[in-house]
Specification:
By secondary structure, the protein is mostly beta strands. It has a single domain, classed as Maltose phosphorylase, domain 3 (Sandwich), CATH 2.60.420. The protein contains no helices and eight strands. It starts with 9 loop residues before the first strand and ends with a strand. Pfam families: Bac_rhamnosid_C. It comes from termite gut metagenome. InterPro entries: Alpha_rhamnosid, Bac_rhamnosid_C.
Amino acid sequence: TSETSTGFKHITMRPYSTEQLNYVKASYHSVHGVIKSAWNIRENVMQWDISVPCNTSATVYIPASSKDRVTESGKQASSAEGVQFVQTEGEYVVFEVASGNYSFTAETK
């Protein structure tokens, strides 16, 4: 959850991978609904499916070198509905997303 928001009204999602860890699936039952995250990395391509409950939002950190290497449901993520590009921060591209289900794909290298 965000440091400035209470009760999971705003969520921060940032996957961490290692050479030994290339797949994670998790969910959490918050007061606003179920938060879901399932990602995998194969051959430098990350597939990440997330679910952000109604009446909440999320900051999503996606490992990619630029926003042009990130898609959401087959479209450039920065022009997808409910998705807004924020910045590039280190090895992550940062987006704000509204409540909903998203399917991100990113070239990680």
